[in-house]
Design goal:
This protein is mostly helical. It has one domain. Helices cover 65% and strands 0% of the residues. It is globular.
């Protein structure tokens, strides 16, 4: 993926948010990032920056 660094940063922040919100993702950054990736594939319009990453 050749995305803008700012958009990648937003995804990393979303992963950190997910780690804080969901117990199963706590202390598992890779798992949280994978969850964000799968969510973006399932619903690419959920966040405004996701269509720009596709």
């Amino acid at each position: 993926m050749n995305a803008n660094p700012t958009l990648r940063y937003l995804n990393r922040r979303l992963a950190r948010w997910a780690m804080a919100k969901y117990k199963r993702l706590k202390r598992q950054r890779g798992r949280a990032e994978d969850w964000i990736r799968r969510t973006s594939l399932r619903d690419p319009t959920l966040f405004a920056h996701w269509p720009m990453l596709a």
